[in-house]
Write a structure and sequence with these properties.
alpha/beta, binds D-xylitol-5-phosphate, TIM Barrel, 8 strands, binds zinc ion
Length: about 220
């Protein structure tokens, strides 16, 4: 089994210097940078838009993964694609009625489409969108805030999604996990079928981010 891809979430960094914080995380060993885009509607918090994402993409040479926790993702995908994000992930729990079409739209913009599943969302949807997604993001917290407790009951959902993707011939599609990821659960998540570990507070609140990132590369 190859080592997990570590995608630090920069949500907990100083929002006045997200581009330089991302560049430092790349030096510290990050494989991707994970952007938590929040609109104050889908989740209570408001973070940043495509302009900031563009500065971040310009500051790093690793893939940037935009996690859109927004109510109307269709309106935003073009901006994040133009900003240079490699992955654009949307939520089926948003008010978007045509998730299938928006996933296709992300691919047409030249990016890799992702679908994020909240803890209460059934994995069944993956059977119907498998041809359209390159990434499935399993939420192991309810989106909105960093530093929440990891919901380990979601490990079973990782196994189920892996099975659905493989049955659809999408062995190449990757599973990412987001929420409360740290060195105590990283190995179990990879064993369940995750290949990308998104981790926010565990990395950004650590006095030694290089060591924190290395401890997740299981
Ligand atoms: C939750 C976000 C996560 C989160 C990760 O809404 O999608 O990316 O900030 O932070 P930790 O690792 O602290 O749960
Ligand atoms: Zn996220």
């Amino acid at each position: 089994m190859s080592k997990a891809i570590i995608a630090p979430s920069i949500l907990g960094c100083n929002h006045g210097e997200l581009a330089s914080a991302s560049a430092e995380l790349e030096i510290d060993g990050a494989d991707w940078i994970h952007l938590d885009v929040m609109d104050g509607v889908f989740v209570p918090v408001l973070t940043f838009g495509a302009g900031v994402a563009s500065s971040i993409c310009g500051a790093v040479s690793i893939p940037v993964d935009a996690h859109l926790m927004v109510d109307k993702p269709a309106d935003l995908i073009e901006g994040f694609a133009k900003a240079g994000c490699r992955y654009i992930t949307i939520h089926p729990e948003s008010s978007e009625k045509h998730i299938h079409r928006v996933l296709g739209g992300i691919r047409e913009l030249g990016c890799s489409p992702g679908l994020a599943l909240n803890p209460a969302t059934s994995p069944e949807i993956i059977r119907w969108v498998a041809p359209l997604v390159d990434l499935v993001l399993i939420m192991t917290v309810n989106p909105g805030y960093g530093g929440q407790k990891h919901i380990s009951a979601m490990h079973e959902k990782i196994r189920t999604v892996r099975k659905f993707l493989n049955e659809a011939g999408r062995n190449d599609a990757i599973i990412s996990v987001d929420g409360g990821v740290d060195s105590s659960n990283a190995k179990k998540l990879v064993k369940a079928g995750a290949s990308v570990l998104v981790s926010g507070s565990y990395i950004t609140s650590s006095p030694d981010r290089t060591a924190a990132i290395a401890s997740l590369k299981v």
